[in-house]
Specification:
Layout (H helix, E strand, L loop, with lengths): L2 H41 L3 H21 L16 H8 L4 H12 L2 H6 L5 E3 L5 E4 L2 H45 L1
Antiparallel strand pairs: 1-2
Helix pairs in contact: 2-4
Length: 180
C-alpha cells in the first residue's frame, strides 16, 4: 500500500471511531430521555391522553355550540358574559363537566382572545348584551395571544432544528457508508 492510501485509511478509521462515539453518546442521551419520560409520564399525561382530552373538549364544545348557536360560534366568536358558566349550569341543557370542558376550550382559543377588545359587548346565554370588556381584560387577552404566538413559533423552531439535526446526521452517515 502506498503512504497516501494508508493515511486515508487511518483518517477514515478515526472518523468512524468518532462517529461511533457520537452514536454511543446519542444512544445514552436517548436512554436518559426515555427514563425521564417515564418519570414525567407519571406527572403529566402522555400525548395519547392529551389527544383524547382534546377530542372530548371539542365534542363538548360542539354540543355547547348546538345547544346555544346564538352564543357559541366558530365564525362569530364574541366575548362571553362574566359568570356565564353558572348560567349554563342552571339552564341544565348540558352536564356541568361538559360545560367546563367546552368553556375552557372556547375561551382559551386565539379567536376568543382576539375578540376581547376594550368596549366590546359581552353576551349572555340568550345572546343579548351583558356588560363590556374592560381595558384590563383587553390587555390580558392581548398578552395571552402574544404568548400563544410565541409558544407556536418556539415549537416550530424546535421542530425545524430537530429536522435539520436529523438530516445532517443522515448525510454524515451516508457519506461514511459510501466511503467504504
Amino acid at each position: 500500500m502506498t503512504p497516501d492510501i494508508d493515511q486515508i485509511c487511518a483518517e477514515t478509521d478515526q472518523v468512524v471511531d468518532k462517529l461511533d462515539q457520537m452514536l454511543s453518546a446519542e444512544e445514552a442521551q436517548r436512554a436518559k430521555q426515555t427514563e425521564a419520560n417515564k418519570v414525567n409520564d407519571a406527572v403529566t399525561p402522555n400525548p395519547k391522553t392529551k389527544s383524547k382530552n382534546r377530542a372530548a373538549n371539542m365534542a363538548a364544545l360542539q354540543q355547547l355550540m348546538e345547544a346555544y348557536p346564538a352564543v357559541f360560534s366558530r365564525e362569530n366568536v364574541r366575548p362571553l358574559k362574566i359568570g356565564i358558566q353558572e348560567d349554563l349550569v342552571a339552564d341544565d341543557k348540558l352536564a356541568k363537566n361538559k360545560i367546563k370542558r367546552a368553556l375552557a376550550s372556547y375561551v382559551r382559543s386565539p379567536q376568543y382572545y382576539r375578540s376581547i377588545r376594550e368596549g366590546a359587548e359581552r353576551i349572555g346565554i340568550d345572546g343579548a348584551a351583558s356588560g363590556l370588556v374592560t381595558e384590563q381584560e383587553a390587555q390580558y387577552a392581548k398578552e395571552k395571544l402574544k404568548e400563544i404566538n410565541q409558544n407556536r413559533r418556539q415549537k416550530q423552531r424546535e421542530v425545524q432544528k430537530a429536522k435539520e439535526k436529523e438530516e445532517r446526521f443522515s448525510r454524515k452517515l451516508e457519506a461514511l457508508v459510501t466511503r467504504k
